[in-house]
Every structure is written in structure tokens, then in C-alpha cells.
Specification:
- By secondary structure, the protein is α+β, with helices and mostly antiparallel strands.
- The protein contains 5 helices and 5 strands.
- It has helices at 20-27, 82-89, 99-112, 118-125, 135-146, and strands at 2-5, 8-11, 46-49, 52-55, 67-69.
């Protein structure tokens, strides 16, 4: 099968029922997407498909229609995505395990709502769990990325 991942067409030889997560990690070599729970409950495996946050651990690779964006596809070491830079500026990561999914969910939120309210942020991020509990920093980073000021 062919997938468009981070703007590039790639060939994947896999069972169509293989979860997208494993196709990305094991076949495409993109290790930024993390395995967390395997049942779409934690958000560590979140990728964007045509800009929509999608749990790659339960999405069969054969069902993917559209462009897949992983954490590797939103910025470069030389030019971080505005959300990645906000994550650094607000010192969001603790263990960092959930961060790729959190960041991609935030990118999708800001694409849909460029200046989200706290309620918008809480709703959009509610499915992405952070064991370290950095939720106030996540909210601050999203506000920073949106260019909003704390009141």
C-alpha cells in the first residue's frame, strides 16, 4: 500500500489490519509516535489524518485515506513548529512520553480555533492523558502558541 506521511509518498508492505502505529514505527521508521495503551484511551499514539487527531494504535493501516502527519512532520530541529517552541518555553515535558500526541492534538486545535478559550483547550485535550500532570503547562503552551495572553 501507499501512504502519504509527512508530505511524502511511502510504500508499506503490511497486513491491512496492522495498526497504523506499528506501520509508522516499525516499517516507516518514524519513532516519534508512541504506544501507550493500545485501546485509544491515552492519546500517546495520536497522529493527524488530514488534520484530524486520530489514534493510530486502533486505526488499521489499510483504512487510512488521507495525509498522515506525525510529530516528525510538523517542524525541524532548525525550525520548530510554534507549538513545539511553546512546549519548550512553558517547560511542559516532564517524562515526555505523551508529548508527541499532546502536541499534535494542540496543532489540530489551533488549526480549527486559532484563539481557543480555556474550555476549548480542555475539551480538545481531554483525551490525551499526561501521567506527570502538566495540564496547566499544556494549557499555557497552547495559549502561548495561539498568541493569547494570560488574563
Amino acid at each position: 500500500m501507499q501512504l502519504t506521511v509527512n508530505g511524502q509518498l511511502i510504500n508499506i508492505e503490511a497486513d491491512p489490519q496492522m495498526p497504523l502505529l506499528w506501520a509508522l514505527r516499525d516499517l516507516a521508521g518514524l519513532k516519534g509516535t508512541k504506544f501507550g495503551c493500545g485501546v485509544a484511551a491515552c492519546g500517546a499514539c495520536t497522529v493527524l489524518i488530514d488534520g484530524v487527531p486520530t489514534r493510530s494504535c486502533v486505526t488499521p493501516v489499510g483504512d487510512v485515506a488521507g495525509e498522515v502527519t506525525t510529530i516528525e512532520g510538523i517542524g525541524t530541529p532548525e525550525s520548530l513548529h510554534v507549538v513545539q517552541q511553546a512546549w519548550i518555553d512553558e517547560q511542559v515535558p516532564q517524562c515526555g512520553y505523551c508529548q508527541s500526541g499532546q502536541i499534535l492534538a494542540a496543532v489540530a486545535l489551533l488549526a480549527e480555533r486559532p484563539n481557543p478559550s480555556d474550555a476549548d483547550i480542555d475539551e480538545a485535550m481531554s483525551g490525551n492523558l499526561c501521567r506527570c500532570g502538566t495540564y496547566p503547562r499544556i494549557r499555557a503552551a497552547i495559549r502561548r502558541a495561539a498568541g493569547a495572553r494570560e488574563v
